[in-house]
Amino acid sequence: MNSFRNRLTFIMIIMIALSVSAAGLIMAKTFKENHLNALEDSMIREMKIILAKMEWKQGELSELFPYFTEEAKSLKGFTGARVTFVRGDGTVLGDSDHEPDTMDNHDSREEIEEAHTKGVGRAIRKSDTVNQNLMYVAIPTSDSPNADIIRLAMSLDQVEDSIRQLWVVLIGGLMLLFIAAALTSYRIALSLTRPLEQITKVAKRIKNMDYRARVKVVKQDEIGELGNAINAMADSLHVQMTRIRENESQLESVLDNMINGVVMIDRTGRIQLMNRRAEEVLGFSARELVGRHYAEAKQQYELSQIIQESLELKEHIREEITFYFPEERLLELNLVPIEQEGHEFSGVLLVLQDVSAIRRLERMRSEFVANVSHELKTPIAAVKGFAETLLGGAVKDEETARSFLQIIFDESDRLNRLIGDILELSKIESRRVPLIFSPVEMDSFMEKTVKLMESEAARKLVHVQVQQESGLYVEADEDRLRQIMMNLMSNGINYTPEGGKVMVKMESLGEDHIRIEISDTGIGIPKKDLPRIFERFYRVDKARSRSSGGTGLGLSIVKHLVELHRGTITVDSTVGVGSTFTIILPVLQ
Q: 3-state SS string over 362-381?
């Protein structure tokens, strides 16, 4: 911007200099012309006075030379100018500065010719006689064509001195004017370029994405309008960039919080984008893979083959692959072609969905149906078999008939419990069981629960022992909490040999939670069965479970009821020593 300012200042100074120089030249020329014209008029007036007062003699040259020479010298004393008298044929009759008989014929002199043709003749030249610049003015003595001529010649030294003085004044004034013009031009250029400098700085800040930069508009001229336009553009860019950042933030938030992995691959095979879930599934960070070829991700060979196939076919591909790194999981892969404007293929979008849980649930559902069918088949087959036996004639034997009918009754009762537990579990899993939360005082709660289990424990000769802190309260559904406790205590009693014991321990875990432990001295659970102990119809000892009247759904119901109370349940067991079920419940729901 300084170079522009300097150029503008220089141009303005040159223009002023040229203008002043031209004005000075014109002024000097005009001054000289006016001075010469005034001098000419003065000389003409003097010559007319001379003609009016002087006697113009005629005669022989020898007589005329002394006369006119004397007159010329006399008149020079009055006029201060050189006086020359010239006859009509150009012969010099007398001259104040030179002997006339030695002078050349003046008929061809410029001022003499003009005097004959125009009435007044003027010429400026260097005189060979006096060796000076002289202005010659001549007029005829009469109107006849060959009239005699009177001529005055005056030195131009005075005029030239005046012109030189004028030039000195003009040059001095021009220098002062140059200095003033330079300062004024610089100030004007500065006032013009300073707003442009500010606009340039603001434009550079906007280019560097500082959209809060604004031009300070002082005047509403053309530069002010430019500043307003820059400010309006900055406002528009700020709004647009804010929207873009919001959209980017929303898009990043959506991508980072998706439960499915998303990977964008361009048509050359380079990875352009990976979300957080894709990093977890593939076991690589986006920083490692973005911008690199998909083959550099050391994953299953099948994944690279599917991506390559999608890039070549440019169509939607769906596959399921088991991944073993960073952990084993079953993934559903969907590769969707990406098209830009004009339907130009630009790459593929890989969507990774972990379907391990879905497939596990499907397998569990299939196993559940199979287990339900198996569990229902056993009592139904027994009922049908014994009924057929009775119909075949065994009903006549009263003792046999009573035995068979008792078996049919027991199996139908077991079948009824099984169906009841299945319906109960279905309601609990679908959360169609409304829980009525209220404060439960655990001292009286455990006292009632133990009384309900006393007869079963006495029948098995199992001792039930309760150890708890006094004054414990918990917000829970009392009926469902009692169902949890009775189910776990009943399991402990059923799988504990005679003379064993079942112990219930309750304690506070700070102000927020309580812990309930139900332990027994029973047969225990093998470690390999512990992870599946809460599955539906899963039995460690199937024969003993059925003989005890169990349906295989009790622990599954317990687990779901604990979760509905926002609690957790774990189990620890040693074969031959016993098992301990630990429940942690929040004090407040």
A: HHHHHHHHHHHHHHHHHHHH
Report if pTM > 0.90: no
For residue 75, what pLDDT band results from cuts at 50, 70 and 90? Answer: confident
Task: Retrieve residue 246's tokens.
Answer: 């919001």
Residues 581/520, Cβ–Cβ less than 8 Å: no
**In sequence order, what DSSP letters do the residues of 451-502 get, joined into one string?**
HHHHHHHHHTT-EEEEEE-TT-EEEE-HHHHHHHHHHHHHHHHHTS-TT-EE
Strand pairing partners for 583?
516, 569
Burial track 413-447 (b if 16+ CB lie within 10 A, e otherwise): ebbeebeebbebbeebeeeeeebeeeebebeebbe
546 pLDDT tier (thresholds 50, 70, 90): very low
Given a contact cutoff of 8 angstroms between Cβ atoms, the answer to whether 87 and 57 are in contact is no
Highest mean pLDDT among 40-49, 167-176, 444-453: 444-453
Backbone angles phi, psi at 347, to 5 degrees: 150, -165
- Helical segments of 109-156, H only: 110-118
Q: Return all residues near 515 (Cβ < 8 A) that are at least 6 apart.
A: 506, 507, 508, 509, 582, 583, 584
Per residue in 120-135, pLDDT (tens digit) is 888 888 766 667 778 8
Question: Do the Cβ atoms of 156 and 133 come closer than 8 Å?
Answer: yes
The predicted model gives 460-470 an average pLDDT of 91
What are the structure tokens assigned to 142, written together? 């009469």
Q: CA–CA separation, 32 vs 28, rounded Å?
A: 6
Q: How many CA atoms lie within 13 A of 126 on its CB side?
A: 3
Q: How many CB atoms are located within 10 Å of the residue 21 CB?
A: 13
Which residue in the block uniquely carries the two structure tokens 């003595």? 141
Cα gap 188→194, rounded to integer Å: 10
pLDDT band of residue 430 (cuts 50, 70, 90) is: low
C-alpha closest to that of 214 among 198, 229, 201, 202? 202
Contacts of residue 449, defined as CB under 8 A and 6 or more positions apart, other chains included, come to 482, 485, 486, 489
The CA distance from 520 to 252, in Å, is 53
The answer to whether 70 touches 94, Cβ cutoff 8 Å, is yes
Q: What is the mean pLDDT of residues 326-333?
A: 86
Candidates 493, 480, 482; CA nearest to 550 is 493
